[in-house]
Amino acid sequence: MKDNIINIVFCSDSNYLEYVAIAIKSIQLNNFKNNFQFHIFLYDIQESELIKFKKLDAPIKLYFIEQQELGQYKNEHKLKHINRSMYIRILVPRLLKNEVDKFIYLDADTLCFRDISPINQIDINSVVCAVISDSPDPISIKKNIQRLKLKTDNYFNSGFLYINTKNWVDSDVENKVNAILLNPQSYHLIYPDQDALNLVLQNQVKYIDFKWNYLFTWMNESEKEQFFYHKESIPYIIHFTGARKPWYIEHAGLAQNLYIFYKHFTPWSNEPLKSYFPKMRINDYRIYAKNFFKKRNLLKALQYYSKYFLLKLRIIKLNN
Predict the structure, then answer these.
(1) What residue ranges do the domains of the chain occupy?
(2) At what angle do helices 173-181 and 88-96 cross, to 10 degrees?
(3) CATH architecture assigned to 2-215
(4) What three-state secondary structure class fits 61?
(5) pTM of the predicted model, to two decimals?
(6) Angle at 40 between CA 44 and CA 8, to 5 degrees
(7) Contacts of range 52-55, beta carbons closer than 8 Å, 24 or more positions apart
(8) 115 vs 119: CA distance, rounded Å
(9) Order of strands across the sheet with 110-112?
(10) What is the pLDDT of residues 113-167, one digit of tens each?
């Protein structure tokens, strides 16, 4: 990379800007010897959040995405924790093509735990980007391949992309992805832009080690409380996929403790953790009930399962 700088991109609206700041601090505090340039693409940002973010002590360039750039995309999804700002990643290579040759794109719900300079040893000259498989389970991968009718043997998660800017632009990835997203009825899309990227980039990506985008949901409950203490196996990046993020006060544990630690170094250090309850979905009540049952808290388990059962019953009645 130019001048040995590692370029890293985040995309955010006001809902996730705090978590971008925390992710940046986790990168900095685990990479004192490395030079970074953070490129932050912003959409629908509140002025108060922007003022806070600008106080972050990091080498940051800000880019503001106009509403018309994203207005074409649908903003209603079955997955309620995602929103329109996720589509910014599709535009970024075009916007950076005269500025950087290669860059790491990261979702906001990530934390870094290791020196990431080995990224410079990964050759992406002949591909559009380096990616990580969406699951270590071959059955799960096969389901996504069959669902999208992919002509490849893998399916990647788009929360980490190590992108060759020129190859992305030359391959016209943005327009090809948009053609799918704007005509979704022709495909069975569950994860909109991720599915579209998998369809477009078949056989144009390099799969790299799971440690570059290790999904928190791959860990069992014991591993979630121990991963930080095993230096030899700790991932470069842990990606907190799903709706139940560790930054919500109800989701206590090691991951939340680490979020609070890195948060301490951001302008949001004095902000209290938010509650997940206003965002809870029906299945969350079932999952909460199951977790409390495992912890032998039968009263809490019964309370959450009762709520789940009543909500499920209400939906059945409405559908009938």
Answers:
(1) 2-215, 280-320
(2) 160
(3) Alpha-Beta Complex (3.90)
(4) strand
(5) 0.90
(6) 150
(7) 52/17, 52/18, 52/21, 52/267, 52/268, 53/17, 53/20, 53/21, 53/267, 55/267
(8) 9
(9) 110-112, 237-239, 214-215
(10) 999 999 999 999 999 999 999 999 999 999 999 999 999 999 999 999 999 999 9
